[in-house]
Design goal:
The chain is mainly α. The chain contains 9 helices and no strands. The longest helix has about 35 residues.
Length: about 240
């Protein structure tokens, strides 16, 4: 691969990784509002549900939650879409195509050796090995295109196949759906978790750093809980 093309791939990979990071952060923040609304258990949000019933806002609250689920799914499906014909599409699959080139991987590993120039060789090699492992993690889950061979780890494929029809239904009937079924709730949470792991891997590989996913989750969930706590009506 020519030097100019290699530099372009690396720059584009960094740009896409940053976009994916922003997208997954947003999806996580949205989904945490759903998680907080449901509460830790049935008792945790009983006051909130009582307040909603008190004001006759059940249908409004239901529409709000469905919109949040729809937006979460739309975001996760969008970032895992195939490359398509548009050159500006920014998805996991585009990065997977970049990682098919050994020149790109070698350049990413070389950069990892220089993340911390003052570190000793042992730590530099650990950084390089970490990049190699994250590259393999991405490639095991994300194909160059979803119409090709099934990935080694087909979890991302399964989530896309299971949840795309629900997202499409939400888009077509935005105000005409019942409660989100529990399996869908659990699958969406798992879809978000896996997408976050892929995003963190791409950020590390192309940007040299990534968020702590547990810290991100804890922060957004705490903020979401605080939001719902302020909406509880107490007439005592």
């Amino acid at each position: 691969m020519e030097d100019n093309e290699l530099r372009q791939r690396l720059a584009e990979g960094a740009k896409i990784s940053k976009r994916l990071e922003d997208e997954v952060r947003s999806a996580t923040r949205i989904w945490c509002i759903v998680e907080a609304f449901n509460g830790r258990d049935e008792e945790h949000r009983s006051q909130l549900r009582d307040s909603i019933r008190h004001f006759g806002l059940g249908k409004t609250a239901n529409t709000l939650i469905k919109g949040l689920v729809r937006d979460t799914l739309s975001s996760l499906l969008r970032i895992s879409d195939p490359p398509g014909e548009k050159e500006d599409r920014q998805t996991f699959c585009v990065l997977a195509n970049f990682l098919e080139h050994e020149d790109v991987i070698s350049a990413l590993v070389e950069r990892a050796l220089n993340w911390q120039p003052d570190w000793d060789d042992q730590w530099k090699q650990r950084n390089a090995e970490l990049v190699r492992k994250r590259v393999e993690f991405i490639k095991s889950l994300v194909p160059k295109n979803w119409t090709g061979p099934v990935p080694i780890d087909d979890r991302l494929l399964q989530f896309r196949q299971q949840l795309r029809p629900l997202r499409n239904s939400f888009l077509a009937h935005a105000e005409d759906y019942d409660q989100v079924p529990q399996p869908t709730f659990n699958e969406t949470r798992s879809f978000l978790k896996l997408s976050s792991e892929i995003e963190a891997a791409s950020s590390l590989v192309f940007l040299g750093s990534s968020d702590d996913l547990q810290d991100r989750w804890d922060t957004y969930l705490r903020e979401a809980n605080e939001f719902w706590d302020h909406l509880i009506f107490d007439d005592t």
